[in-house]
Design goal:
By secondary structure, the protein is of the alpha+beta class. It folds into two domains: about 15-75, Winged helix-like DNA-binding domain superfamily/Winged helix DNA-binding domain (Arc Repressor Mutant, subunit A, Orthogonal Bundle); about 80-235, Chorismate lyase-like (Chorismate lyase, 3-Layer(aba) Sandwich), CATH 3.40.1410. Helix content is about 25%, strand content about 30%. It has helices at about 15-30, 40-45, 50-60, 110-115, 165-175, 190-200; strands spanning about 65-70, 70-75, 80-85, 100-105, 125-135, 135-145, 180-190, 205-215, 220-230, 230-235. A six-stranded antiparallel sheet has the order 4-5-6-9-8-7. Strand 8 (about 205-215) and strand 9 (about 220-230) form a beta hairpin. Helix 1 packs across helix 3 (about 50-60) and helix 2 (about 40-45) packs across helix 3. The longest helix is centred in the N-terminal third of the chain and has 16 residues, at about 15-30. The chain is elongated, with a radius of gyration of 22 Å. The two termini are about 20 Å apart.
């Protein structure tokens, strides 16, 4: 493909360049491929390097590019689908290929979680930690809050925490009759712990997906999953998914 000169356009030059670069990512590059250096790209598109940097920063913000010191700028993988409908009736599985159980312990949940679970504040619950990785990149971290009354037959274990304990809690949940799995999603900012797990700076935009797992008697568990906003898309319906994202690879 030859050199492309940008004409005068009714939008900022960097934004027009961002569109041109996005089209090039779709047609010329593959996931993980390293882009040419800034000097070469600026010469190809006939722009100043400052304009190029603005366009690259915008594409990185949208999740189309990864920029890493010592590696360069690489093409990011497609966004991870986050299903928010239709409502399902499946517990998180102990051997889920999508999520990896990383640990579990007994501790008091945040006040809002205790209220949702109809528990007195300060009541300890099982807190199962899981992570989700796509193409070697962390994209989500989950905290699953499970009252002890939801898993009364949880076997004693020599390991009070860790991945094995987390899977044991998830296995016990499979015995409950799940009647509904209701989800809500909101835009938030990464807290310090989330930012560390997701390889982002504190305050980076995230999507927080809250799931209430309901049995005939009560809300038996509550999940709070934090997704990197630049690596995921929301999907709705059983078919013909609507993707809430721009420039998905």
């Amino acid at each position: 493909m030859g050199t492309t000169q940008l004409e005068t356009v009714p939008e900022p030059k960097y934004w027009h360049l961002r569109t041109v670069l996005s089209e090039a990512l779709d047609s010329e590059f593959t996931v993980g491929e390293v882009l040419p250096n800034e000097r070469e790209l600026a010469a190809r598109f006939g722009v100043a390097r400052a304009t190029l940097r603005q366009a690259l920063e915008q594409l990185e913000l949208e999740g189309r590019l990864h920029r890493r010191r010592g590696v360069g700028t690489t093409v990011a993988p497609p966004r991870v689908a986050v299903e928010v409908g239709p409502e399902g009736t499946a517990w998180p599985g102990p051997d889920d290929d999508t999520w990896q159980a990383t640990g579990s312990d007994l501790s008091a949940p945040p006040a809002a979680v205790a209220t949702a679970l109809a528990l007195p504040r300060g009541t300890a619950v099982h807190v199962v930690r899981r992570s989700r990785v796509s193409h070697g990149q962390p994209v989500a971290a989950e905290l699953l809050y499970v009252p002890e009354t939801s898993v009364p037959d949880l076997p004693a274990s020599d390991t009070p925490s860790g991945a094995a304990r987390a899977r044991a809690v998830l296995r016990e949940l499979q015995h409950l009759d799940l009647t509904a799995r209701n989800r809500s999603v909101e835009l938030g900012s990464a807290r310090a712990d989330d930012a560390k797990q997701l390889d982002r700076l504190p305050g980076a935009p995230v999507l927080v997906v809250t799931t209430h797992f309901t049995t005939p008697a009560r809300i038996a568990a509550l999940s709070v999953a934090t997704y990197r906003a630049d690596t995921c898309r929301l999907t709705f319906g059983e078919s013909g998914r609507v993707e809430i994202a721009e420039g998905v690879g």
